[in-house]
Give the backbone structure.
Amino acid sequence: MSTTTTGSVDQAAGLRNIFGAELSRVICIASTLDPDSTIHLGHGTAHSIKQLGHRVLLIDEIALSDRKTMSGFLYPVRYDLGQVFTSSINLARSIKAIEENFWYATSVKLRPEIAHRFAKYPQLDQRLVNHEIDIDYIVFPTIDPQANIVAYYGSNIKRILVTASDQDSLKKAMVMIRQMAILQIDEPLSVLIVGGEDEAAGSQAFEKLHNASVSALEQPLDFIGWIKALTAERVELDPDDLTWNPVSKGETHEFVMPMGFFKAISAKITS
């Protein structure tokens, strides 16, 4: 860790001690990738931010039924943030300390509670302050960044879109841009392109997406960059003969993110 980073983090901690806790910054990472890859990119990003000396809470909201290679949550938990927003449990019971400066919580139950109008404010960032839980960044990876859902996590929201460069992914990206543009007022939306033949192809995909976004939504985009990523074939265990075979349903491949991805996105977040 550099001296500059350590000094800035220590200074921020000192200011909090003097003036009181400040609201966490919410990092909404909207992804057109498959659910499993989206969870992993959020997890890796949260860890990368933690390595810079910040206190990070990772929110895991993707339902278990949508996961293809994961049999459960990243970490064992008993309670869900959806129960917090319906006043069923205390906030502290839903957040699990994993290691120094890194916390984890699931939020699978929040969307249904919002749909049934049972979930109530205050937002998560304010709840953290009320419970004297000091978090710098709330990292929220999602495949469905509806503005009314994201708003439950806080008021200071940074939105980042991660998308592959193929045509189907760019179409999904446009839908997500429309969802996020509702609250992304007068600010370009950051975009990171993943995979594809080379950087030139990634830049071309961004230009196509940017032009479509400006034309249809008047929403400018900010190109974070292109990250080369490998794809790995998904396999599943045959319970009869205990052999591994290609998956029979859903996505047949998943992205394998290089460390450069997490460094690029965490640098953008904390700059």
The two ends are 15 Å apart (CA to CA).
